[in-house]
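Could someone model coenzyme A with this protein?
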Amino acid sequence: MTDQAQAPEDLFPGKPTSASRTTLSHIMTAAETNLLGTVHGGVIMKLVDDAAGAVAGRHSGGPAVTASMDEMVFLEPVQVGDLVHVKAQCNWTGRSSMEIGVRVLAERWNESTPAQQVGSAYLVFAAVDADGKTRPVPPVIPETERDRRRYQEAQIRRTHRLARRRAIKELRDRRAAEGLND
Ligand SMILES: CC(C)(COP(=O)(O)OP(=O)(O)OC[C@H]1O[C@@H](n2cnc3c(N)ncnc32)[C@H](O)[C@@H]1OP(=O)(O)O)[C@@H](O)C(=O)NCCC(=O)NCCS
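Reply:
Sure, complex below.
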């Protein structure tokens, strides 16, 4: 034992992006279709949330909850018999939150054609303790140029999310102060 104080980075070192990057794969069946016969968007969103949750748990080393999901884009319909790969990585970290970027790819389960991107999303997870209170996460360390670009883009999204939340709160407070109830 030593009486010298440890530097914060020794107590809480960063984690490289590759340490928590995850792919979740699933073959789509007829049980997962919408009324048009293609795969229901909600099924894809669940896979996205599951894959992102695995990344958040791995990066933060414990439980993490979905705080938000935004920019969920469906580029192409997913068909029964598609083998879907949901690729997720930690793009950015704050104090207790992490932005997880997700790309959804699909290929025919029995054909060796290249997988096509069918969707993408960004999710914010907050790391929590056993009481549901937020806890700090290790800073993510981007490793490649692509990781560094994603980190910078995530910071832009973070700034916009906070600004939008603040602006809406201010508007609501102002309306409430004017006695406008809805
Ligand atoms: C997410 C949750 C833990 C945030 O708790 P809170 O008391 O508001 O905590 P804070 O305001 O300190 O926010 C914690 C972090 O999450 C971020 N955050 C909170 N709400 C957010 C939102 N809607 N969008 C983006 N980020 C958000 C904050 O910016 C903060 O980031 P930082 O610590 O890196 O700076 C809380 O709202 C919660 O438990 N929500 C339910 C989550 C859940 O059950 N998800 C599954 C849905 S079924």
